[in-house]
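Weekly structure sync, notes
Attendees: PL (lead), two postdocs, one rotation student
Agenda item 3: pending single-chain targets
PL asked that the sequence for the first pending target be pasted directly into the notes so everyone works from the same version. It is reproduced below exactly as submitted, 245 residues in total.
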Amino acid sequence: MATAPEEWTLTVDELAARAGMTVRTVRFYSTRGLLPPPVIGPRRVGHYGHGHLSRLALIEELQRQGMTLAAIERYLEQLPEDLSAHDLAIHRALVASWAPDGVEEMTGAELERRAGRPLTEQDLDRLAAMGVLLDTPEKASGGVHRVDPGLLRLGVELLDVPIAHETILRARTVLVEHTRAAAAELTRLFRDEVWSPYREREADPEHVAAMKSLSVHMRPLVMQALVTAFQRSLTAELRAAFRAP
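Predicted structure, written out during the meeting:
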């Protein structure tokens, strides 16, 4: 996992606080090999980067999907070693999309702690436009925001991207429409080609269990395939759009 030297700024306590977990849990993941080692600085203090934070979020989301630590380890081993923190955040957001919709209520202080930075009114407006905040800052009840935790870290990463508010809204509309169409087509394919043969024998408990197992295990594979296909398509489109005449 490549990380620029200036990004290695978090102590293990700060990393755990930003990730919303205990230091003991972070160290446990490290001993299991799920988390790359820190950079050792003066006084033998380990320093962690944004990539570690994104990886912890991905591990947490995979666990929410019911994957064991052994399965998560195999999943992480399949990811390219040079994935950036941003790439890992995208993986996490895609994996989270398979989970039931979840909403957390956070005060302004808690939201800033989870974001790891102060948030201006403009930042809050942009997060609302991206669907991270499920209510506008003006409608936050008693200063408590309704937050989609699956998108929070990715949304914070995008705050520093110089894109106009209106452009964010249009981009979100494009992504929602096209991903929904892809999801519908994949669902149709799964239903017609995989589910139907099993349904004919659904009275057999073994086949029902096999079907459920297949559904669970295919999800992260579909996510990885979607990320890879989208990244390659986007790279090709950008090269074609900005190719020098």
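Discussion points:
- The chain has three domains: 5-83, 104-158, 166-241.
- The chain has ten helices and four strands.
Action: rotation student to compare against the earlier draft before next sync.
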